[in-house]
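<amino_acid_chain>
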Amino acid sequence: MRRVLLLTLFVLAVAVPVLAQDAVKVDPKHYKVEFENRSVRVLRVKYGPHEKSVMHSHPNSVAIFQSDGRVKFTYPGGKSEERDMKAGQAMWTPATRHLPENLTDNDMEVILVEMKTRRRPAAKKPAETNTATRQ
């Protein structure tokens, strides 16, 4: 029983970081933080011709394409899709995990503005007031 528990803890320790890998940490060759504050993180994304990343995740983001190109996104489970992009185009991208690949013979560059979700403090209960009247 103890072995099963230890094995389970080990598997979780290895698996959980893999589920939500930050692109900057797992692929620093292609992802660089340009700016960060409490609300957003701005990444500069650069891929050379036919370069491929590793599986990673992004929160809700806005992508602003700096170059024309064609990208293949492979998702967990093996499903993939190809997308064309034009320099100057901006696109909303919901939170996702993917593995991007530049399908062109040219460099590809994107500015990615990642949204950070703010944790709102728990609502305060209104203070109780004594409504009894004095006599």
In short: Residues 124 and 130 are 18 Å apart (CA to CA).
